From TrEMBL:
Keyword vocabulary terms for this entry: Membrane, Transmembrane, Transmembrane helix
Biological source species: Allokutzneria albata (Kibdelosporangium albatum)
Protein name: Uncharacterized protein
Membrane-spanning parts: 7-31, 37-57, 64-82, 88-108
Upper lineage: Bacteria, Bacillati, Actinomycetota, Actinomycetes, Pseudonocardiales
Length: 119
């Protein structure tokens, strides 16, 4: 079956958003120092890459796993937005969190359900 456009939009939202978050972490690390600033962005990027690979290979739990990762990441970004951190980190996390919510919406569209169901 041909891969739907929604799949590519999901992958762009998930992976692209986490790469932006990692880039913001690298900028903060360069300005403030402290390697602990890169732990959360790296862990989230690895989780998102695993979810993206499962969607591309259409494994059985791809939709549930990708949804769980996207919701988890969106909630973490919401905590960053509501926390008391630097303004740039909060703005970037708000945008990245919105991208994760949009990925969850796209995961529940008809073409993606049809693509991920086994014949």
């Amino acid at each position: 079956m041909k891969r739907p456009v929604e799949l590519w939009a999901i992958l762009a939202c998930l992976v692209g958003a986490e790469l932006v978050f990692l880039g913001a972490g690298v900028l903060r690390w360069a300005a403030e120092g402290g390697a602990d600033l890169l732990v959360l962005p790296t862990v989230l990027l690895v989780l998102v890459l695993v979810a993206a690979a499962s969607l591309l290979t259409r494994i059985r739990i791809a939709k549930a796993g990708a949804t769980a990762v996207a919701v988890f990441a969106a909630l973490l970004h919401l905590l960053i937005v509501l926390g008391d951190g630097p303004g740039l980190a909060r703005i970037v996390s708000g945008i990245v969190g919105a991208a994760h919510v949009y990925a969850v919406v796209l995961l529940n569209t008809g073409p993606m359900r049809k693509f991920l169901e086994r014949p």
